[in-house]
Amino acid sequence: WAWLGIAPSPPASPSNAFHGVIVPELVHANKEGLGSLLGYASLYFAAVALGRACRSWEIQGRHVVHRLLMLTVMCYSAVVALGGAQAVSRRSCNLQYVLWMIAYNAGVLAMFRASAPHLAPRKRGDIYDIVNRHMLSTFLVANLLTGAAKLSGIASDARDLPFALFGTTVYMGLVLGTILLLPGPSL
């Protein structure tokens, strides 16, 4: 019952078998997830703003790569400056983590943007468009399947390479198969 967030107390009578405090236990079991909501929401909105800024800079003919590199340096500098206050924490999604993720992703975007003129254009597969259209669904299905694999014990049995490759292939097939069943244009 712990996975439901119910803390059973010793029964005084058969009708009192699960007289637990459900809400506080559920909150306690998920305190990291609940505490990091603001940080992840901030990270999402920062990523959206960065994407819009990149498009705006490109339309205006501004130096996108230079701006992304400046943002990378500024965010990494802020992470270092704030390092004494609290360590970077993905679990709590604190300010240092948000800045670190913005810096990392801005740096990756700068590298992609700088190398784009040197790469041959290729047609993107339709599966990319489907996954992009259903990002949240893809994320949720992948997380649920990961949890199911961990709870079933399959993940701990994946020590030999053939089994691990088979498990990964089935996992990706289930995620993509589920996404293909969602409404909207498909392959």
UniProtKB/TrEMBL annotation:
Membrane topology: Multi-pass membrane protein
Claim: Transmembrane is one of the keywords in the record: yes
GO cellular component terms, semicolon-separated: endoplasmic reticulum; membrane
Regions crossing the membrane: 34-53, 65-85, 97-114, 135-155, 161-182
Keywords associated with the record: Membrane, Transmembrane, Transmembrane helix
GO biological process terms held by the UniProt record: GPI anchor biosynthetic process; protein localization to plasma membrane
Pfam families, sorted: GWT1
Coiled-coil regions listed: none
GO MF annotations in UniProt: glucosaminyl-phosphatidylinositol O-acyltransferase activity
Domain of life assignment: Eukaryota
Subcellular localization: Membrane
Listed name of the protein: Uncharacterized protein
